[in-house]
Amino acid sequence: MAQKPSIPKGTRDFSPVEMAKRNYIFNTIKEVYALYGFQQIETPAMENLSTLMGKYGEEGDKLLFKILNSGDFLHGMTPDEVANTSTQKLAAKFCEKGLRYDLTVPFARYVVQHREELALPFKRYQIQPVWRADRPQKGRYREFYQCDADVVGSDSLLNEVELMQIVDTVFGKFGVRVCIKINNRKILTGIAEMIGQADKIVDITVAIDKLDKIGLEAVNAELTANGIPAEAVDKLQPIIQLSGTNADKLATMREVLKDSEVGLKGVEETAFILSKLSGLKNEVEFDLTLARGLNYYTGAIFEVKALDVQIGSITGGGRYDNLTGIFGMPGLSGVGISFGADRIFDVLNQLDLYPKEAVNGTKVLFVNFGEAEANFCLPVLAQLRAEGISAEIYPDATKMKKQMSYANAKQIPFVAIVGENEMTEGKITLKDMTTGEQQLLNPSELIETLK
């Protein structure tokens, strides 16, 4: 017996019901983005590796899926050279392109490439898949969708405020309780200066960003392994474990960072953003352990956690002042967020929060008893569809039981039955598949009932 085909680990097929749920997520997010004046773009699945490499830190570079050059990519190399060359060098020679790791770096490339066409500030959203050569686990996939919104060409912190309002609105529509966590990379830079380890800012932020996942002891061990002296690690402890209200934390950090100009600037930026978010429905927390490991963030950083489901971050983002400078366009500031659609999908599944109307497909199935009955049904079907009611007819004149099983399998809530008696009266028998109740209706009554 032939072996069943399979798909790569970390990827998924989606059934029609699952696609209906995913489209509900995408459409909800799109609608909110549009409310705030964002416009949609798309970029290619693959980018030049020169565009992607060096933008995500050393760990991110390792997770890039590289694409072999087409044609004879071994041309000009002897077997000995292939055997004795490191994998990394071979990849650099054989691969000029890679699958995109996120949507932000391709967006920065897009802005620089199309800068003459754009009116600044430019507010864009983008909903497309990304790929990471990560170890698959619960809530972590190798292929997944991101739903990004970014503003470039404006330094105003009102952009950060609006993005947090978008987050609050989206999860309000989903019915998911979340905590919006906010920090600032300038604060983290100030902390690194304060403990005398300014050159270790990347190592420090990557480590403390893992606090929720691996715990304080493991974070301290990683800091030590990265060459942070024990004295500096000790100085970090009260900061990492800082508690209290947002106002309390801000007051403490003003005192701790009083000798750091960049650190104080980060505190004031955070205070401004928090002061404008008092009307949100969801909790907003100033969290000093939030670091977000991506190298390109320079200001405010955000992360969103679901409160009623154990899962990783479901939205994240931040301010990046230097990203387009990498592509030859310095001085253009940007800020953005990204909804993790696949994790949101899992959260809504666990909490059973999908509206029935978003998931159900066909509303009514017409039973097929033969050619004459089908000919009677077809104009009625056309009327229903013209009124926006999803309807179908079973294509074959087969046993009633088989047609009803089809309706049950597709969770179609109504079945329309037209036999000889109905045709004589010019009516349709409508059966409610949930209650079993039946009504004899003319076409206009059928439309009103189904609406």
In words, what does this structure look like?
The chain is of the alpha+beta class. It folds into 2 domains: 16-351, 2-Layer Sandwich (BirA Bifunctional Protein, domain 2); 360-450, 3-Layer(aba) Sandwich (Rossmann fold), CATH 3.40.50.800. It contains 20 helices and 16 strands. Strand 12 (364-366), helix 17 and strand 13 (391-393) form a beta-alpha-beta unit. The model has no long low-confidence stretch (mean pLDDT 90).
What's a concise summary of this model?
The protein is an alpha+beta fold and 451 residues long. The chain has two domains: 336 residues, 2-Layer Sandwich (BirA Bifunctional Protein, domain 2); 91 residues, 3-Layer(aba) Sandwich (Rossmann fold).
How many separate helices? 20
- Count of discrete domains: 2
CATH topology of the largest domain: BirA Bifunctional Protein, domain 2
Described by strand count, sense and barrel closure, the largest sheet is:
8 strands, mixed
Keywords, please?
globular; Rossmann fold; alpha+beta; 2 domains; 5-stranded mixed beta sheet; BirA Bifunctional Protein, domain 2; 451 residues; 8-stranded mixed beta sheet
Topology:
Blueprint (H helix, E strand, L loop, with lengths): L15 H20 L3 E2 L5 E3 H4 L4 H6 L3 E2 L11 H6 L2 H8 L2 E3 L4 H10 L8 E10 L11 E10 L5 H17 L3 E7 H10 L6 H8 L2 H4 L1 H10 L4 H11 L5 H11 L4 H15 L7 E4 L13 E7 L8 E6 L13 E7 H11 L4 H4 L4 E3 L4 H16 L4 E3 L6 H10 L4 E4 L2 H6 L2 E5 L5 E4 L1 H8 L1
Parallel strand pairs: 1-5, 7-8, 12-13, 12-14
Antiparallel strand pairs: 2-4, 3-4, 5-6, 6-11, 7-9, 9-10, 10-11, 14-15, 15-16
